[in-house]
Design brief:
Length: 109
């Protein structure tokens, strides 16, 4: 399964595996999302709206826990800044934070 999120945690992996981490550009991300069925697990509406604006691909908010299995892939919009405790950002505030696109692949160990 292909997931899209704005965070990654080792708590999303529940068994021994190897993780492959790659940096992507926006065109690569858009291409992956358009060519594959994906599940958005973005937990805040402003972030989902920001990703939709960046990529031109509809991304819904879906605040659920993710348990990645072998073969799964997770595209992460990694914000490069630490947010204040409990702060929920608006779309405009999110757009001011530097970011990177990261692909996390769960491989057999």
């Amino acid at each position: 399964m292909l997931y899209l999120n704005n965070t990654f945690s080792l708590g999303m992996v529940n068994s021994d595996c190897t993780l492959k981490v790659s940096f992507l550009n926006e065109n690569d991300v858009k291409s992956l999302l358009l060519k594959n069925e994906f599940v958005s697990v973005v937990g805040h509406q402003a972030t989902a709206d920001f990703i939709t604006l960046l990529l031109g691909v509809e991304v819904g908010m879906n605040r659920v826990a993710v348990s990645l299995q072998k073969g799964d892939k997770l595209i992460v919009l990694q914000l490069k800044g630490r947010l204040p405790e409990g702060k929920i950002l608006t779309k405009d505030e999110v757009s001011q934070i530097p970011y990177a696109w990261i692909l996390v692949e769960v491989l057999p160990s």
